[in-house]
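Example 3.2
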Amino acid sequence: MDRDEAAKTNTELQSLFEGVALSDNTRRLYAAQWRKFAGWCAARPSLALPARPRLLILYLAMLAEERLSASTLKVACNAIARAHELHGHVPPMSHPLVMTWLRRLTDTCSHEPQRTAGLTAAQLRRIVAAMGDDLAAFRDRALLLVGFAARLRPAELVELNVADVVRRGEGIELLVPARRILIAPGRDPITCTPLAVCSWIDAAALVPSGPLFVGINRWGQRGGRLSERGVTLIVQARARKAGLSIEGISADSLHLGSRDERRLL
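Structure, written as tokens:
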């Protein structure tokens, strides 16, 4: 299939779940997983709808390599299946080959120890304090503080756009699907989430229509939207640089933990 045609088709499909009769939380999770799958297909280029069974197997294997949980794999499959049903297609996961691979991948993920732990305010303060003042540091500071303060899951964090950030005096409001999250200024400028986010947007000269968190190469050049795996690598790299053990630390560490910890920043 022509690359431009695939990209156009998959882009149109990314808003598939808007208006679908689902709970707000389910719609948000399905939409995020579907956009991820459609974007992955567009880069091949291959059609996301209807998706070929072998293409889906490759995608599921990629998700497994990211060490995602069995529950996340299930949400991704449910989102892809629902998208096919909405357009009158048979979900590719009903194919015998896909079912075999899915059982194998889910079983592997289910038997891996789930040791992810939430970051504490003290750990996050230590991580942020160890960052420099280059462009990647501006991004990573904003990324970690937003994920921690707003308790966003990795899928929600990478889906944020610049337009989803509204400045409210010295604070900010995040326009996350189905809800608004107000984040007040922090006690310390180093761990002030609104300051970090606004500084990142200004330093990177991000446009309102683009993603909030993007990749940055070794030359300081901006790339495309960050992936969930990319967030985990950033969290772990920053924790290691701050002298912390990365055992149990991943992108999910940002949204885990008690609300009381967030009040300490």
